[in-house]
Each structure stands twice: as C-alpha cells, then as structure tokens.
Amino acid sequence: MTTSPHIPGVHTESTSSTRAATGLLAYLLAGLYFGVVLVKSEAASWYRIQEMFRFESFHMFGLIGSAVLTGMVTTALLRLSGVRSRDGQAITVTSKDRGWRRYVLGGLTFGVGWGLAGVCPGPIFVLLGAGVWPILIVLACALLGTYLYGVLKDRLPH
C-alpha cells in the first residue's frame, strides 16, 4: 500500500476505494430521491404529459419551469462560487455553441419522441421501477436511437 504524496499518512488505495463507494451510494440515493419526486409530482404520468401537450393543464409547465429556474440559479452559483468536485478539481460550466439549427432539430426530435412515447428519457427507469412494463418498448427504442446517433453523428450537422 502506498501513501499519498499530497497528504502525509493517507493511503491512496483505501481512500480512493472508499471515495468511490461513497460516491456510488450518493448517486444511488440521489437517483432514488429523484425517482420518488418524479412519481409523486406526477411528472412520469402519461396523462399529465398529454394534458400539457393539449394545453389542458398548467401542472407540467409549472414543473418544467421550476426545473429550468432551478437549473439557471444552480449554474450561476456554480460559475460564481468556485466550488470543487470531490476529487478537488474545479467545476466549470462551459457556454453552449451559438447557432439555432442543432437546438431546433434536437428539440423537435426530442419533442416528437416525447409526444409519441408519452414520456421523456428521465422517467423511463422510474416507470420501470414502478412496474409499468410496457415502458420496456420505450427503453428499447431510446437505446436504439442513442446507438443510431453514435453511428451517424459524423454525418449529422453539428
């Protein structure tokens, strides 16, 4: 076992394995919490999503709007605070590329898939965990689409 050159007396092998285990546990708990929030807020409900696309309810628009606002505030705080990752690396948020085509085409593709499936990619595993077995078809199509993008990405406009 070797000691860390940066921290005297600290063993790197045990520290890194402990850090990896606690990191995985943190991600598992965060994912579980996110899944419960999606189910309880009805964000994974096909009926709520259809209400949104038919402009019959404000529920999903409010939910998405609050998520966008939270993301904007969090991104601004990350840029200003100089916070570091668990490994001590600086966290940076890079700006998006300018141009509209990739965002419009990507948004349309995402929206059509969301409208047809009745679910965006986030709740697929939540619905699977809730026992909604037909979502396996959506999961298979999402994986196929991801694979096809990987195969075709060099020929697509970016």
UniProtKB/TrEMBL annotation:
<feature type="transmembrane region" description="Helical">
    <location>
        <begin position="20"/>
        <end position="39"/>
    </location>
</feature>
<feature type="transmembrane region" description="Helical">
    <location>
        <begin position="132"/>
        <end position="152"/>
    </location>
</feature>
<keyword id="KW-0812">Transmembrane</keyword>
<dbReference type="InterPro" id="IPR046513">
    <property type="entry name" value="DUF6691"/>
</dbReference>
<dbReference type="Pfam" id="PF20398">
    <property type="entry name" value="DUF6691"/>
</dbReference>
<protein>
    <submittedName>
        <fullName>UPF0394 membrane protein XF_0765</fullName>
    </submittedName>
</protein>
<keyword id="KW-1133">Transmembrane helix</keyword>
<feature type="transmembrane region" description="Helical">
    <location>
        <begin position="59"/>
        <end position="82"/>
    </location>
</feature>
<keyword id="KW-0472">Membrane</keyword>
<feature type="transmembrane region" description="Helical">
    <location>
        <begin position="103"/>
        <end position="126"/>
    </location>
</feature>
